[in-house]
């Protein structure tokens, strides 16, 4: 049978040819589109991992271990120093490349911004230096840097820090068994209360310290309370697997759902507001010499912004300082040679202490004469990795060398992968404070406005610790973990041997 001019055998051939051409056209269009897209978005190499959660569980397993860069190191071997993956339900670009990390830090606010969950921002306050963005962040950063610059430390903090440390140590007796992790938290929180709020009365310090401490513990647990978030699932799995093994004495693992964080925040704000009121009523009473009082005198921030500012500083400075103190003693216990050298430096200064109102204290010149102590602090920060990674978000599509980072992508400079890299630091896994005596190693980025204050606090803590307690017996093996924050899993339980009073000069 004929249809039109064609034989009926010809029609199937024409139809299939047409179909083939349509498919071919579609395929080529897709290919061209993909190429254009690839050219536009050449993500760093990497992988997708599991649906929704991506590599979050592997990530958490690594950071809960004693060697947090493990996951990053594995990916670096496969894909290179900058790679992509999925974390917390988001596409992420992770870097173990010091150059890229510097690029991120140098373009803070311009190309990148900090990326914290909303619930965290609500708790620590939207108007604080950690959580604010753009121009407001720059302004708050400069206020924070101004409040904690060297001259202020010299005049406002030096003696107070020594008083607070001694108050805590005076309550510890010979042969007492302590959990050093708890003691360091207590010292650091008391220091924060004293320096931020200008509170020095014992009972007030204790009351505020308890409030601050509960608040910081709670904030560390907030990712747990994000239902439906990949983060939440990862944490839950992680918790089930690590909790029975790693129950430590610090409160860092107390994840009590009934804990009312908002209430703790309100109580802190009400205390801050009361202090503001007292200061306004008696501005020249000389009561309190904290950052809070100085902000009220020197800056013109609204009261709610002042409260957020203080809570942000508390959050940024408390755990970081406490854990650096703890890790310094932990590393020193494992390195007798460094311990001996530190003791020589500090014993010499102990004999030079001066009398300030009946208390023997160190002067600013003494503090400046602790070169080896500063190396111990640098090495503790490198090996202890208190700030393991930074959390950023791309503000726009960004081109870096051959790669593209799309807008809103999670960007993670993984600092400890650089700090523990053998090609950057020889014998990177060993505690070797002497490496910081080499001038080239000394330059480091200063993006923490509290860095100098933290150094002063840690140096003075080490001075009084090693010159008050002779030797300490470690009662339980310990190891570091970085989940949910940096800690020693058994809290570093030690028995103190106090140097007899007549031995002290
Ligand atoms: C050893 C102790 C400390 C360490 C290891 C440390 C580390 C850091 C790091 C890595 C950052 C950058 C975070 C980021 O960019 O996402 C940072 C920022 C910050 N730190 Fe510290 N810090 C310490 C002590 C302190 C203290 C004592 C204070 C103040 C009381 C403080 C206040 C801040 C503030 C306000 C920021 C935010 C700066 C901004 O975003 O503009 N830090 N710190």
Automatic annotation (TrEMBL):
Keywords: Heme, Iron, Membrane, Metal-binding, Transmembrane, Transmembrane helix. Heme binds at residue 448. The chain crosses the membrane at residues 6-28. It comes from the Eukaryota. Pfam families: p450. One of its GO terms (molecular function) is oxidoreductase activity, acting on paired donors, with incorporation or reduction of molecular oxygen. Its cofactor is heme. The keyword Transferase does not apply. One of its GO terms (biological process) is sterol metabolic process. The keyword Glycoprotein does not apply. This is DH200=94 genomic scaffold, scaffold_236. It comes from Coffea canephora. The lineage of its organism: Eukaryota, Viridiplantae, Streptophyta, Embryophyta, Tracheophyta.
